[in-house]
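Async update (no meeting this week)

Hi team, since we skipped the sync, here's where things stand on the single-chain job. The sequence we agreed to prioritize is pasted below, unchanged from the tracker. I ran it this morning and attached the output directly underneath so nobody has to dig for it. Comments welcome in thread, and please keep replies under the output.
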Amino acid sequence: MKQLENKVAIITGAGSGIGRSTALLFAKEDARVVVSDISEANGNSVVEEIKKSGGEAFFVKADSSKATDNETLVKKTIEKYGSLDIAVNNAGIGGPLGVTGEYPLDGWQKVIDINLSGVFYGLRYQLPAMLPTGGSIINIASILGQAGTKFSPAYVAAKHGVVGLTKAAALEYADKNIRINSVGPGYINTPLVASSIDEAGRKALVGLHPIGRLGEAEEIAELILWLASSKSSFVTGTYYAADGGYLAQ
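Output:
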């Protein structure tokens, strides 16, 4: 029996990076995957990849920063599959760089809207849908949900917020058979990283990780799978770093 057989899973930001790798892995473990992304092209591409491998999936375009889109995403999932067992609130952006005293106001708002409010909106509609059967929710934070860094005040604040929100919600729903955890990836070899830094910048990022390399999206997906599965049935309200030793320094 596969780990997620007969389970229904929503994954936001599933069109690329960690979200894509998680969607593919979940499908491999027999989950019915609801691929959500703001990019129709990327989202549909992941769905086709899953279907070609014999999996089950469908795409819902959604902007995680909008409460109504999160509500619609859950409604369409229930209409299609009849239940919701797993949610991975993964959609996020890096945002602009700048010192706090000069940080662009629109940049602050956009990062908070997507990276923090988007997770809250996800929980707001996923949790009621899970009450009848229970479930597992994994919120994707960051190493910067536990540590600070210069020039990314909005991102650091949002990811710290995700960790705190996860703990609060986990306590509220611990006796309702719904587990909620967060994952803190280090710097991962994703299209987002590749498109935003040059080779020198990449080497600098690698140097931040004692393990001597960036992480791979597939490695983070494996941790998310464990948290989604019954193998982690006694785990809730916890933050799990997958960071190549970054936070141990």
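Quick observations from my side:
The beta strands are 8-11, 32-37, 56-61, 86-89, 135-140, 178-185, 239-242.
The chain has a mean pLDDT of 96.
Reply here if anything looks off.
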